[in-house]
Write a structure and sequence with these properties.
GO terms for molecular function: (S)-2-hydroxyglutarate dehydrogenase activity; NAD binding; phosphoglycerate dehydrogenase activity. With 402 residues, the protein is α/β, with parallel strands linked by helices. 32% of the residues lie in helices and 20% in strands. It has 3 domains: 126 residues, NAD(P)-binding Rossmann-like Domain (Rossmann fold, 3-Layer(aba) Sandwich), CATH 3.40.50.720; 181 residues, Rossmann fold (3-Layer(aba) Sandwich); 79 residues, 2-Layer Sandwich (Alpha-Beta Plaits). A 7-stranded parallel beta sheet has the order 8-7-6-9-10-11-12, with helices on both faces.
C-alpha cells in the first residue's frame, strides 16, 4: 500500500500511516498536473494541502487511488464531483487549526489598532518614533465577524473576553455565543463594525464577496482582516480604500494568487502600504495545529481504506461505522435507488450470513452501506453485488489480527 503526502505535511501523519502498513513518500512541495499524474501511479492514498489541485483528469490517471486527504480546512482544490463519481473519498480537517487561526486574528487586531507593524519597521530602520498618534485600545470596539462557523464562533468568544463587542453575519442559521449579536444583512454589519474579519468558506458563491461596494460601506477608519480565502477579496479595491484613508489598516493571510513553492516571489497590490500586515497563508501554521491535522486526516484516510469508514467525508455518504475489532465487514457503494438495501439484505439472508451491524447513508445520487458480519463475507454475495448495475464498488475488510 502506497501513500503520497505533499506540501510538507506533519511527520506524525507519516508515522500513523507507516504504523498501519503504508509505504509513505513525503514531499515538501506541491505538484503541477503532469507531475501529480506521474507520481500517483500505484498510490492508494494522497495527502495534500492548499496548493496541489486534483482534477478529474488526474483522478482518471490514478486507478489505484482510494482517498484524498486535505491536510487543511479547504477542499475546493479537488474536483469533488469527479472524486465521488469514481468512488474516491475526500477528507479534510475542519476543526484542527481553528485555535491557531483565531490567535493570529486576535494578534492582528491588536497590531493594527496600535500600528505596531509600522513601529517595528521604523525601529529596524533606526528611527525612534514614540507617539500615540493613531494608536488605540481594542477594548470597547465593535468586531464584525462575517462567517460564524467554527473559526468565527471561537473568535467571537476570545474577542468578547478581551472587551470587544461582537456582531456577526452568516447566511446560515447560527447560534450566537456569549453576548454576540446577529446582523440580518452584511450591510448592517459593515455600518457598525470597527473591525471586520472574514471567515467564510471557499464555495464559488463567495468569490468576490468583498469589493469596492463593500469597502465603501465600512465605517471610516475601520480595520479589515481576511484569513479565510483569497478569492473573497478584491485586493485592488482594498488598496484604493487604504490609500484614500477610508480604511485605516488591513491584515491578509490569503490571496487570490499565491506562490506554489517556498521562496517563490510574491506579488500583491497591497505591498508597501502603511499599516497593512501581509502573512504567507500561515493562519493554521503552528506546530500544534499541524500535528493535530496530521493525526486527524491520516487517521481518517486509513480508517476509510482499511475499514471502510467515511465519517466526515466531504463527498461520499458519511457512514459512522465503529472501528472493526472482530469479524468481517462488507462495504457497498451504490446508486441511491429504492430497494437496493433490501436486495443486499436478501442476498445476505439467502447465504446464511450472520449480520452483527448495519449502517447506511445516502447523499445525492449515492448510497453507502457498511455491514458487519460474524464470520466470512460470503463470496457469492460479493460477486452478485459486484455484478449489479447499481454497484459503484464493493469491498471487504477483515478485523485486524492480534
Amino acid at each position: 500500500m502506497k501513500a503520497l503526502l505533499l506540501e510538507n505535511i506533519h511527520p506524525l501523519a507519516v508515522e500513523i500511516l507507516e504504523d498501519r502498513g503504508y509505504d509513505v513518500e513525503l514531499l515538501g512541495h506541491s505538484l503541477d498536473h503532469d507531475e501529480l499524474v506521474e507520481k500517483l501511479q500505484g498510490v492508494s492514498l494522497l495527502g495534500i494541502r492548499s496548493n496541489t489541485h486534483v482534477s478529474a483528469e488526474a483522478l482518471d490517471a490514478a486507478p489505484d487511488l482510494k482517498a484524498v486527504g486535505c491536510f487543511c480546512i479547504g477542499t475546493n482544490q479537488i474536483d469533488h464531483a469527479a472524486a465521488a463519481e469514481r468512488g474516491i473519498a475526500v477528507f479534510n480537517a475542519p476543526y484542527s487549526n481553528t485555535r491557531s487561526v483565531v490567535e493570529l486574528v486576535i494578534g492582528e487586531i491588536i497590531m493594527l489598532a496600535r500600528r505596531l507593524a509600522e513601529k517595528t519597521e521604523k525601529m529596524h530602520a533606526g528611527v525612534w518614533d514614540k507617539s500615540a498618534k493613531g494608536s488605540h485600545e481594542i477594548r470597547g470596539r465593535v468586531l464584525g465577524i462575517v462567517g460564524y462557523g467554527n473559526i468565527g464562533t471561537q473568535l467571537s468568544n476570545l474577542a468578547e473576553a478581551m472587551g470587544l463587542s461582537v456582531i456577526f453575519y452568516d447566511t446560515a442559521d447560527r447560534l450566537a455565543h456569549g453576548n454576540a449579536k446577529r446582523k440580518r444583512t452584511l450591510d448592517a454589519l459593515l455600518a457598525e463594525a470597527d473591525v471586520v474579519s472574514i471567515h467564510v468558506d471557499g464555495r464559488p458563491g463567495n468569490a468576490g464577496l468583498f469589493g469596492a461596494e463593500q469597502f465603501a460601506k465600512m465605517k471610516p477608519r475601520s480595520l479589515f482582516i481576511n484569513a479565510s480565502r483569497g478569492m473573497v477579496v478584491d485586493t485592488e479595491a482594498l488598496r484604493d480604500h487604504i490609500v484614500s484613508g477610508h480604511i485605516a489598516g488591513a491584515a491578509l493571510d490569503v490571496f487570490p494568487i499565491e506562490p506554489k513553492a517556498q521562496g517563490d516571489e510574491f506579488e500583491s497590490p497591497l505591498k508597501g502600504l502603511d499599516n497593512v500586515i501581509l502573512t504567507p497563508h500561515v493562519g493554521g501554521s503552528t506546530q500544534e495545529a499541524q500535528e493535530e491535522i496530521g493525526f486527524f486526516v491520516a487517521t481518517k484516510l486509513a480508517g476509510f481504506h482499511l475499514q471502510g469508514r467515511t465519517e466526515l467525508s466531504v463527498n461520499l455518504p458519511a457512514v459512522g461505522a465503529p472501528e472493526l475489532h472482530t469479524g468481517n465487514r462488507l462495504g457497498y457503494l451504490h446508486d441511491n435507488l429504492p430497494g437496493v438495501l433490501a436486495e443486499v439484505n436478501q442476498l445476505l439472508a439467502d447465504s446464511g450470513a450472520n449480520v452483527t451491524g448495519q449502517y447506511l447513508a445516502t447523499v445525492r445520487q449515492q448510497g453507502y452501506a457498511v455491514i458487519d458480519i460474524d464470520g466470512d463475507v460470503p463470496e457469492e454475495v460479493v460477486a452478485k453485488l459486484a455484478g449489479s448495475e447499481h454497484c459503484q464498488w464493493v469491498r471487504t475488510w477483515h478485523a485486524p489480527q492480534d
